[in-house]
What we know:
- The protein has helices spanning about 1-20, 50-55, 70-80, 100-110, 180-195, 220-230, 250-275, 320, 350-355, 370-375, 440-460, 465-480, and strands at about 25-30, 60-65, 110-115, 135-140, 200-205, 240, 245, 280-285, 295, 325-330, 340-345, 385-390, 400-405, 410-415, 420-425.
- The chain is α/β, with parallel strands linked by helices.
- The chain has two domains: about 20-380, 3-Layer(aba) Sandwich (Alkaline Phosphatase, subunit A), CATH 3.40.720; about 385-480, Arylsulfatase, C-terminal domain, CATH 3.30.1120.10.
- Mean pLDDT is about 90; it is low at about 1-20.
Amino acid sequence: MKKIFLFLLLSSSIGLFAQKKTNVILFLVDDLGYYDLSCTGSDLYETPNIDKLSESGMSFTNAYASHPRCVPSRYGIQTGKYPATGRVPGGKGSLKETDYTIGQAFQAAGYKTFFTGKWHLGHDEEEWPQNRGYDVNVAGCSAGAPISYFYPYNVRQKDAVSDDKHKAIVGLEEGEEGEYITDRLTDETIKFIKENKNKPFFAMLSHYGVHTPFQAKKESIEKYQNKIKEMHFDGPEYITKDGTTKMRQDNAVYAAMIESVDQSMGKLIEALKKAGIYENTAIIFTSDHGGLSNRGVNSKRDLATSNLPLRAGKGHLYEGGTKVPFIVYWNGQVKKGSVSDQVTINCDIYPTLLEMAGIENTNKDIDGQSIVAELEGGPLMERTIFWHSPKGRPNKTGDQNSSVIRVGDYKLIDFYDSKKIELYDLKSDPGETEDLSIAQAGKAEKLKEELNIWKQQINAYVQSEAQKKKKKNKKKAKKNHKK
């Protein structure tokens, strides 16, 4: 009788354990470059907590954003689609009524869903997190950045360095004087975790940091100012290439902003451990695109960082604009301290997280592919990935309209307006310094043909001559008005 009782108790315990669902946290940083972490090689930025996450999970060397700008990249994360598939940018609005978000997928599976921070998808409330699959939304609205990083967040402060006129953040009207927004969003996430530690949850902490305006805590700024004084830099601070390119990581305020995001990760992990759910929570860390390292030749905007040895940065389809840090902690499934060369794009986050949580992905209208097999140590998946950027900003970030295809190690960039193509072998030339489009003309032509077929299939948005002329006249009128 005793043996039978023990057997039933053991069977019950195993059953309960098997039914325990994995919690998932997606930790997204804004404008953070691949080399903006100490674990990826920065000598200036200090990110001990993110480094520890890397030591506890798997880091990817070939992870990409689906677009080098905020709105399209976030569209790719939420929908699992290439932004170009949804005509973002280009079409009207961002999220469509037919788009089924990752929040909705988790919500339908019985997960408690939470979003805080930068949403930036849609001007109307109907498009915001609380109406697109998230039970709780804190500060997710149309704003792309705070007016101030210190409370009151919607009041411009004198020491904020930015050339943008940011919108007010809905949902953070109340707060404590001097409160820092990165800390506030972290606290909101921890509050949600404490309240839902006994339920399966999907939480997305989408930091406004480290986007402009450049603003950080004074003590942290002073720390990095002193550190920079001890550093030695060779060569010029800027060069004229891909617009104007910053060649150094020497912005003390930006460094302090990165430190605040790293501290956020540390607080989050500590809260999970105190709640007793750290080992049953998967954490995914990434950025929405490369760091702000380039500007138009005639622009005077302050730049945040250098993405060297990668070429260019935010806005560009060169590696500096699309390659991002990507770390996955998944206790018991991912080998600690492992590194993967798997090519992955942020559209993959959607199907990957669902599979990690054991949720069937019923949404077939996606471009992303699950990389769970690679996370579990399987062989690398061969694939082709695409980018399309039809609204370049030559005056602001120095980039031009272009499209890209990557097959294996080869990457072709088509600057279709100027009818110019470039071909690179990323394995031997990750900095994209040697254009092979003439030396390997046959391969270049084949890749361009495949790229054009994809663009035709998805009906990719391309500005007409009339639209270009209208945009040019609008800028001209605005410039004359300022005079």
